[in-house]
Design a protein that fits this description.
This protein has helices at 6-22, 41-60, 83-104, 119-140, 149-168, 228-235, 252-260, and strands at 32-33, 36-40, 182-188, 198-203, 208-212, 222-226, 246-250. It is of the alpha+beta class. It has a five-stranded mixed beta sheet with strand order 5-4-3-6-7. Strands 1-2 form a two-stranded antiparallel sheet.
């Protein structure tokens, strides 16, 4: 699958953070986040800012193992709970992460928890981390969520890669995503054809496989269809598949089965 390029991912870290910051204006930081009910809006913002700083420290130090939180500069963020202070801290972390990642270049080898140990991995991961958590912030303040077609589609790609990695490395929930003869089709009806915003997930006897952008229309066991932003939200467990913003055609229980067994961490 063709990626968007290292510079683009670095740009998106800042761009998606700026869009998240815009949601904080006049917001109640104690409001609960519907899609992450264990967090308030303020805690969500701190999570994103800490992720940026952690990735920046890994790449800046050329770490060959995970960097402890107490070694990450300004990891905790401001004591002040005012939106302006938190917004400034969030912006600063995103800018520093993007600058460090650009300076390093995609091919610089560093530690990661995943299949690819490089600065390029962290640029892409932090871009998508921010894309998804911007959706959480939008839900918390009851604002519409939109995403550019190419970055939204790449976010779905990366999520499928993460789930496949988890399955290959023994995650017990991801291990259940198998059993021949079943398939899930995701189809974004509003994305330009060139984006190829269609994904076929096929269950095999030992694991699942997936491909994107097929021009075929296979008879999938279940199809999730809607605007790209909404397909992304359902697939990332931010929007219920029963929402009237999407269509589920076929065996809805198979989609539920997938969603119940795919989570981050």
């Amino acid at each position: 699958m063709t990626r968007l390029g290292h510079d683009r991912y670095c740009d998106e870290i800042v761009h998606q953070t700026d869009r998240t910051r815009a949601l904080l204006a006049g917001a109640d930081l104690t409001a609960k986040v519907p899609s992450c009910p264990e967090w308030t809006l303020g805690e969500l913002v701190r999570h994103v800012g800490r992720a940026h700083r952690w990735a920046e420290a890994i790449v800046r130090t050329r770490a060959d193992e995970s960097v402890p939180e107490d070694q990450v500069p300004d990891f905790g963020g401001p004591a002040d709970s005012e939106p302006a202070a938190l917004e400034a801290w969030l912006a600063d972390g995103a800018e520093k992460a993007a600058a460090t990642l650009r300076e390093a270049g995609a091919g610089t080898e560093v530690w990661s928890w995943a299949w690819e140990r490089s600065a390029g991995f962290w640029a892409r991961r932090m871009a998508h981390e921010t894309v998804v958590h911007r959706a959480d912030a939008a839900l918390a303040v009851s604002r519409t969520y939109e995403v550019e077609p190419d970055i939204g589609a790449d976010t779905i790609d990366e999520w499928l890669e993460i789930v496949a990695f988890s399955q290959a490395h023994g995650d017990p929930e991801a291990a259940d995503l198998r059993g021949g003869g079943r398939s899930i089709l995701l189809r974004a009806r509003d994305a330009p054809r060139a984006v190829g915003a269609e994904w076929l997930i096929e269950f095999g006897e030992d694991r699942f496989d997936w491909r994107r952008g097929s021009t075929e229309t296979p008879d999938a066991t279940v199809e999730l269809r809607g605007a790209l932003a909404d397909v992304l939200l359902v697939f990332q467990r931010r929007l219920a598949p029963g929402s009237d913003r999407v269509e589920v055609l076929g065996d809805a229980k198979l989609l539920d089965f997938w969603l119940e067994r795919t989570s981050f961490g």
